[in-house]
């Protein structure tokens, strides 16, 4: 029984919290660094990560996030989300993590394909000009699944 090497990674990004966006970006970037094809499909609220007006204002989710180790009532207090976001951005800067807009440019330049979900684009009444220049297009989920047409392809939902 032979093992096939991973040849292509497809990421579905459905939330635009900083922790989800950077998880997807880091994994896609890591795939490219290993010579693996990578594509990201932004759907529902994940579309905010590629909207010109929203991408640099993403936040950390403090409510309903058990990994924050903050009680829900405390996480919902005014200013908690902003504080947690500021702290996380400060830590990411220490690691030389680029801001979202720069990271998208790096991903695109490295060959990562960036796709917007047609259903979500229509649902939120968005237009192509709302998105970053590096967007490769707007696809249906069926079109995106067709991108998984080769052996060694993995799909990860974030």
From the alpha carbons, calculate the radius of gyration and give it in angstroms.
Answer: 16 Å
End-to-end separation in angstroms reads 31 Å
The helix/strand order is EHEHHHEHEHE
The fraction of residues in strands falls at: 15-25%
Which outline best applies? globular
SS elements, strand count: 5
Short description:
This protein has helices at residues 18-33, 72-75, 80-94, 100-109, 118-123, 141-146; strands at residues 8-13, 37-42, 113-117, 137-139, 153-157. The protein has 158 residues and is of the alpha/beta class. It has a 5-stranded parallel β-sheet.
What descriptive keywords fit this protein?
five-stranded parallel beta sheet, 6 helices, single chain, alpha/beta
Explained architecture:
- By secondary structure, the chain is α/β, with parallel strands linked by helices.
- It is 36% helix and 16% strand.
- It is built from 6 helices and 5 strands; from the N terminus they run E-H-E-H-H-H-E-H-E-H-E.
- It has helices at residues 18-33, 72-75, 80-94, 100-109, 118-123, 141-146; strands at residues 8-13, 37-42, 113-117, 137-139, 153-157.
- Strands 4-3-2-1-5 form a 5-stranded parallel beta sheet.
């Amino acid at each position: 029984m032979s093992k096939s090497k991973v040849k292509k990674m497809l990421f579905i990004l459905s939330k635009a919290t900083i922790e989800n966006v950077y998880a997807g970006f880091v994994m896609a970037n890591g795939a490219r660094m290993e010579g693996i094809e990578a594509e990201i499909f932004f759907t529902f609220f994940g579309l905010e990560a590629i909207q010109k007006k929203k991408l640099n204002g993403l936040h950390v989710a403090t409510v309903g996030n058990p990994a924050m180790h903050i009680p829900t009532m405390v996480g919902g207090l005014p200013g908690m989300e902003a504080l947690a976001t500021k702290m996380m951005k400060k830590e990411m800067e220490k690691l030389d993590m680029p801001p979202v807009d720069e990271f998208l440019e790096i991903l695109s330049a490295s060959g990562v394909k960036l796709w917007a979900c047609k259903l979500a684009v229509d649902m939120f009444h968005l237009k192509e000009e709302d998105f970053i220049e590096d967007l490769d297009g707007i696809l249906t989920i069926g079109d995106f699944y067709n991108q998984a047409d080769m052996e060694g392809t993995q799909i990860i939902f974030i």
